[in-house]
Amino acid sequence: MAHGSWTDEDVLRALHDRYALRAVAVTREDEPGRSIRNWYVEREAGPPVRVLQYLDRSQLASAKAGLDMAEYCRAASLKVPRVWPDSACHLLSDDGEYGMSVADVPAGKAFIRPLTVHQAQALGLSLALMHQALAAYPQPTETPGRREAAWAECPVEDVIYAHEAAALAAITAGARDSHASEHLHWVRRHLPCRVGDLRAAVPEVLTAHAIHGAFVPPNIRADEPKPVITGFRARCGYLVWELARVAFDVRTVAEGTEWEARAAALLSAYHHAFPAFPVAELVACPSVALLELLCTPTPTAQPGSWAMRASAARRLSAALPELEVAIRRLGTHPQRHL
Fold this sequence. Notes:
Elements: H1 8-19, E1 23-28, E2 36-43, E3 49-54, H2 60-75, E4 83-84, E5 93-94, E6 99-104, E7 109-110, H3 117-134, H4 150-153, H5 156-173, H6 177-200, E8 208-211, E9 220-222, E10 228-229, E11 235-238, H7 239-247, H8 250-255, H9 259-273, H10 279-283, H11 285-295, H12 305-328
Antiparallel strand pairs: 1-2, 2-3, 3-6, 4-6, 5-6, 7-9, 8-11, 9-10
Protein name: Putative phosphotransferase
Keywords: Plasmid, Transferase
Organism: Streptomyces sp. FR1
């Protein structure tokens, strides 16, 4: 095979030699310059598969961890695309130069609009089942990185510096100066006076074990009767962080007309399916979600992303007291919505 990125013929040969899969059409779908190559492959018999080639060997351990967790969750009856083992029964096939994985193409549609109540309920149920299944999963060696843990521990000065750097990078890459600057000004004004109280509202001891690590769109796809889960990162982390991020999904909070009802549906479904999860941590979800918005810089320069994140932070900040009071009622009425 060719050195560097494979050709379509290389992909066909690897599928045949390593997986005994015969393909009829190959389409490359990744963007140039990425360290992971991505092909959509139509098979001679059976549903299509997605082939990933890992050019950076330093990524192989984390990729294997994600694939292992995906298959574990699929065995636990969660809706996860099948990962195909190679002829040596490895989910990550390694020829000594590059890694390779093959998985079914996920069904369903991407979440490109605010969540509906029904979708929120389905996500809450799936996340509760996944968290309970992962309680028995071996603890991953990967722990949250600095960016992922900023909401809980990063000093205010470091957070503001990270926002400033992200704003400069986004403006350089084409984001609207007004959007980035306005949000940066809001963070500078609110973060120092809010972060202490928000962190104090979070219990000192939080439930932690293996988690998905990126349970947010685009790694979740809408499908019936259950959403499809992809993109496992296989981290050891706090369950409340993963729950808060999806319950207060940025797009839904920023653009949804009834975003509180969507959060209510998701948290109610989660609590009903996982009643052992501490109510105190459930109540802390809005604070954790707001901390995440305040402490994590907008990661992209895509049009509208900065304005969307700013709108979500403002809406969540204004509604925080009412949300916390309402969520407490779940402890005495576990099957009612907020």
